Amino acid sequence: MTYIDKLINQIEELEPQVDTMFDKSAILYTDPNENYNGGFYLVGFDFHHWTKKDEKGQILCKEAYDNFYQNFELLLTKATPDIEQKINEANLEIKNLIEQNRAPTSIESGKAVLRKNTTIIKEYLELLRREENGLIIVPDTNALIQYPDPTVYQKVANTTDFTMVILPTVLSELDKLKLTHRNEDFRKKVKSVIKRLKGYRKQGNVLKGVTVNKSILLKMVATEPDFSYTLNWLDSRNNDDRIIANALELQTKNPSQRLIFVSSDINFQNKAELANLEVFDPDDFE
User: Fold this and answer.
1) Is residue 255's pLDDT more than 60?
2) Which sequence ranges are marked TM in the entry (predicted)?
């Protein structure tokens, strides 16, 4: 499943969740001119208001929408000013409905307004789809040490045609481990991984990608992630978070491609899933 597919699924799962919240709520219309006696006649005011709110539903819907929008927002760099404004307005409308601030004219009209605005978001996601729907494999440091041969990852991809990307923090950790790890055999293993990677550099420009085993494109990323534009819970001082941020940046630049993050670390896996990244556990190779 691609990043775009995941986001569309999440916003579609939110719609019935908000519907349920609405069904447990109530709206009342108050006519300010009901007792009109020839004085001032009020027009142009909205006199619909919530008389009952589903506060538990609000909390659940708000959490689901906030998690969705944090990931979705990373794709807005691709939007034109007009589209971005349209999405910002849709976002405010959806938040207003979830927080049950300004009341719609009825429960059913509220559901209709919700879908009108979620459709704006889904239409933008569909705009980002590309015909190329390749597969990207991103191993963490331990996965790369354990399985340095790119052909092994054909088991993850279920195909011989994919792109394998080595991130800068992974390369830095390899350089550190070859010098500082207390186990000599492990240091030798790390050095052999580094030697293999340097061999790829001799084949060509690894930043653009070199071909391995005829069909695998191996690339290395030189730039660190931009922490001014990523998920706010990622910590730039934490190497795991740097790897997640780099993988997420790679995914948001290629939202119509499927990206699989390879790690056997449970905490790493949890963080990757929270960042909307697909995870594969290399322990499943065994």
Assistant:
1) yes
2) none
